[in-house]
């Protein structure tokens, strides 16, 4: 097995890397930093988790090899930490954590009980599915929240994000909104809801929570509201495919809520808006772009 860091392939090689490796694979001025620093990206990531559950072979790996059911919060935190690391950290650190994930994927293989087909987490097509749902979720949420992205910026975000996919071994990754739409159209015959996907969706909507936290803090209703928003932010076809009665299947309310959420969070102090990794990176960005002005 080759654990050497993957270099950006032909899909992303034309995009210029920051000169300073400490600025990572994207750096100041990138659309990736703009999108991923926006507070509305988080609910988009939750939307991606719901959509990802509709791919039986991808879900089987999570269901059979992860602690998603018993360790929901640590698992969610590790996923968020990985995304923020790849987005904002140095290339050396990104290569290290991506290598760790690739090695872990080598042990995730088995048989999907829904389709009867084998799967391996390292398969490029499964990596592609997870990547595309993720970046589409982030981008769609930020656009619908009113962040002011242009069409060119939206396409550039997807082109930049090909690097993140290649680090884990994905190939033939869509690099524009048109390519993402074509990809979803092509992959939809492979998707289906199942008892496992519905169980996963319900766990995401109502994860286990310590009794004291659930009874003495607003954590339970706050998470339920955030997860419901994530469900509503999925593509319409995905929401309907889940077949979960009582959950939103229309777009208007989701758009209004994500806009209101973004406005509210942006009115808070910066330490409440973003995590420390993003705050440190954006401080560097302000200094660099300020010096260049």
UniProtKB/TrEMBL annotation:
Its EC number is 1.-.-.-. Residues 33-263 form the ER-bound oxygenase mpaB/mpaB'/Rubber oxygenase catalytic domain. One of its GO terms (molecular function) is oxidoreductase activity. InterPro entries: MPAB/Lcp_cat_dom. It holds the Pfam family MPAB_Lcp_cat. Keywords: Oxidoreductase. The keyword Oxidoreductase applies. The keyword Oxidoreductase applies. This is Oxygenase MpaB family protein.
């Amino acid at each position: 097995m080759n654990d050497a860091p993957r270099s950006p392939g032909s899909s992303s090689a034309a995009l210029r890397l920051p000169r300073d490796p400490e600025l990572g694979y994207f750096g100041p001025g990138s659309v990736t930093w703009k999108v991923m620093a926006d507070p509305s990206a988080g609910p988009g990531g939750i939307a991606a988790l719901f959509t990802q559950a509709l791919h039986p072979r991808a879900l089987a790996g999570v269901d059979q090899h992860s602690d998603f059911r018993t360790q929901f919060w640590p698992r969610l935190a590790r996923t968020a930490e990985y995304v923020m690391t790849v987005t904002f950290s140095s290339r050396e650190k990104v290569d290290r954590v991506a290598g760790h994930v690739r090695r872990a994927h080598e042990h995730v293989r088995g048989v999907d009980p829904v389709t009867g087909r084998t799967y391996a987490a390292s398969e490029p097509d499964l990596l592609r599915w997870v990547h595309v749902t993720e970046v589409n979720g982030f981008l769609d949420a930020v656009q619908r929240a009113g962040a002011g992205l242009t069409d060119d910026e939206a396409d550039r975000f997807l082109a930049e994000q090909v690097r993140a996919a290649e680090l884990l071994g994905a190939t033939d990754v869509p690099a524009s909104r048109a390519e993402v739409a074509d990809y979803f159209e092509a992959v939809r015959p492979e998707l289906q809801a199942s008892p496992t996907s519905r169980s996963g969706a319900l766990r995401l909507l109502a994860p286990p929570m310590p009794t004291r936290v659930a009874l003495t803090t607003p954590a339970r209703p706050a998470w339920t509201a955030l997860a419901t928003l994530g469900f509503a932010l999925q593509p319409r076809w995905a929401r309907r495919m889940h077949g979960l009665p009582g959950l939103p299947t229309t777009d208007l309310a989701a758009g209004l809520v994500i806009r209101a959420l973004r406005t509210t969070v942006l009115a808070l102090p910066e330490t409440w808006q973003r995590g420390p990794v993003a705050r440190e990176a954006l401080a560097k960005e302000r200094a660099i772009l300020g010096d260049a002005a």
